[in-house]
Amino acid sequence: MDLCLDELGASGDAIVEGPLATHRAFLAALAALRDPSCVLRSTDRTGTARGAALLARWDRPPRPPATEVVPRPSLRGLDRHRERWREQLAALPGDRSRVEPGT
Length: 103
Known about the structure:
The protein is α+β, with helices and mostly antiparallel strands. The chain has one domain (2-75). It is 39% helix and 10% strand. The protein is built from 4 helices and 3 strands, in the order αβαβαβα. It has helices spanning 2-8, 24-33, 47-56, 78-90, and strands at 14-16, 39-42, 67-69. The protein has a 3-stranded mixed β-sheet, covered by helices on one side. The radius of gyration is 16 Å and the shape is globular. The two termini are 14 Å apart.
């Protein structure tokens, strides 16, 4: 998810919805990796219906979902793990022109 957000050029806070919003280990790792941005988890269980309503009422500004801030843990070695993972990903065959080690 961290790489996907980087590839999208995402900046600022990230809201996690759906089943991943209940996965504590995933949320903790994402919060640590996205520093200094804030990771929020949606407490709204109507995410799919909410998304459909947004599409149906595109002309109206959306109301933000109910969220809570995910605490940012100190996970020693996580940055190095991310760097090594991205190095290995960049070494795979195929077009990886946007994935560069150390980003």
